[in-house]
Every structure is written in structure tokens, then in C-alpha cells.
Amino acid sequence: MATPSRREFLKRVSGGAVLAAGLGVRAAEAAGTAPGTKPSGTGPGAIPRRELGRTKASVSILGLGLGSAFTKPFEKDPDRAGKLLLRALDHGINYWDTSRTYGVSESLIGPALAQVRDRVFMVSKTGSRTYDGFMKDLEVSLRNLRTDSLDLYHMHNFSAKTDPDLGAVEKGALRAARKAREEGLIRAYGVSGHSGAAILMECIRRFDPDAVLTIFPADRPDSGRYEDELLPLARERNLGVIAMKTVRMAKQSDLKGTDLIRYAMSLDGVATTIVGLDGQALLDENAAMAAAFTPLGPGKRAQMTIEVRKALAGLTAPWDTPGYMDRLPA
């Protein structure tokens, strides 16, 4: 496939309504305030921000995960979805995460994002491993999200079982990611996964991404390798680290969701922790915790791991079940 110029690509996405010159300004505005400062907000308090590794962007320590938790209750009520997204931004939550594989998620986000684009660090993902597939997904993401660029675009859901040939990814999706970053269509590219730390560490070494999205639950899966090996590697390379899947098991136990989120937020090197957005009550509760956040020390985290493992004994995380894919049904 012939590679379109940056301007041609943008014309296809926006119908020529958006000037490419606005990309640099928008990326600078999306960076927000300096690390450690608090943005304005009308919620229970302003949520602290951290620097997202080498991207230098300032992102809220609590981010929005806009997968099935978001699409299921709001798929047929886009107006309410938009209002909830704007309420999250009022709390100071500027990190919004979606994916091409999350059904209507991007389309639900688009109208709200168009109103506040300069205040949001917008992230999406592609499951494609080819050059053409990456570029096609990116074009659709931009159109759905009603924007001319994304702040971060992940190559999504790496697994040793489904990705035995990383060399093919280097020739395909990785080449597209670097081209898209060069052209200003994305500000940064990343990798994501929850099927073992080893495959992600290999991706980090081979692909040199700007960011990594992976799991940091308090029960320390994979014998603690996400925390003990992957996280130090990411810090060494100054990658932006995003934590996910922290509260997925809370509903099957008596564990408190905000405690599980706080655990991941307390890890050295984690910039933001994304949590599914499913309604106002949990949004406000999580935002209140994040606004008043104080980190857990190593001793407290170790004790929490013991307690969480005991509470989850005999339960299997959804992402550890055979055939699990981080996507919505077609």
C-alpha cells in the first residue's frame, strides 16, 4: 500500500476541515501541567499528575479505561456517556484509554473529546501486526475520535502464544508506528499485554516503545515479574508505564477497589492507573481516593499482597482463562 502524505491522511480522516499545522499546538497543550501539580477540577479535589516517561506528558494518576465497563451501560445512551466523560475531566482525569477492539467505544468518546481535545491525553490501540492493518486502524480511530492526532497508540495485547514472530511485527506494525509518529499522526507508540512479563520485556528491548500498558494487580502474578523485572526495565529506558487490571477481581471477593488501585499507584515508575468507567458513583469514589492519594510503602504493599492472595485463592483472573482476548465480541 502506498503511504499517504500526512496532509492526505488528515484529509481522509477529517474531510480537510482540520489543518495539519494544528498538530504541534495540540500535542503541546495535551501535555498539561508540570509533574506533581494539580489541575483545576470541580470534583472532590484535583487529582495529582505524573510525567509519562519520555513522552514528557503530564497525566492524571487515575485514568479512564473505556472498554466493556464503559460500552455496556452506555452503548445506547451516548449523551449520558459524554456527560460522564466530561465529569471525569472535571475531576482532573485527563488520561483516556480506548481501543479499536472495544466495539463502539471510540465512537462514544468522539463527541465529548471534540469539545475538550486540548485537555485530554487520548490513547487508543490496534490489534493489527501488519503495516497496512496498523495504518487502517489508526485512520478509523482518528475518524471515530474526531481528532487529527492521538497522543499514544499501542500495539495491543502481545502474547507468546499469539505472537511467536516478533520479527514480522518489526517489519509491519512497528514500521507503521514509527512512520505515524514521524508524520505527527501519533505523538507516541506503545505496547500492551497481560499474558506474561517476558513477552512484553522482549517487545520493549526490540521495539523501543515510548510506553507500556500492563497489569500490576496486588497479588503480583507471574511470580512478581511485572514488578520485579518489567518495571525496572521500563524505568531504565524511561518508558511511560500505565497500570491496568487492578480491580477486575474485587467483585468476586470482599476486597476494596480503591485499595487495589492505590497499590498500583504506589509502585515506583507507574505514571497512571486506568480503571473501567461504568458509572458516576464509582468514578466519584475513585477520584476522591486519587485526589487524596498517599503512596503505600513496601511493607504495606507486601502485607496487602498476602491478604489479596488469600482473598483470591481459588479464583482465576479472566485474562488467565484459555482463549481470553482483550476485545469485545464482534
Can you offer a commentary on this structure?
With 330 residues, this protein is α/β, with parallel strands linked by helices. It has one domain: NADP-dependent oxidoreductase domain (TIM Barrel). 42% of the residues lie in helices and 14% in strands. The chain is built from 13 helices and ten strands. The strands form two sheets. An eight-stranded parallel barrel has the order 3-4-5-6-7-8-9-10, surrounded by seven helices. It is globular. The protein starts with 5 loop residues before the first helix and ends in a 19-residue tail after the last helix. About 9% of the residues have low confidence.
From the structure above, extract its key features.
TIM Barrel; 10 strands; globular; alpha/beta; eight-stranded parallel β-barrel
Number of strands: 10
Our count of domains comes out at 1
Individual helix count: 13
CATH architecture: Alpha-Beta Barrel
Q: Biggest sheet, strands in spatial order?
A: 3-4-5-6-7-8-9-10
Helix and strand run: HHEEEHHEHEHEHHEHEHEHEHH
Give me the secondary-structure topology.
Elements: H1 6-14, H2 22-30, E1 49-51, E2 58-60, E3 62-65, H3 68-74, H4 78-90, E4 95-97, H5 105-116, E5 121-126, H6 131-145, E6 152-155, H7 166-171, H8 173-183, E7 189-193, H9 197-207, E8 211-215, H10 225-236, E9 240-244, H11 257-265, E10 270-276, H12 280-291, H13 298-311
Parallel strand pairs: 3-4, 3-10, 4-5, 5-6, 6-7, 7-8, 8-9, 9-10
Antiparallel strand pairs: 1-2
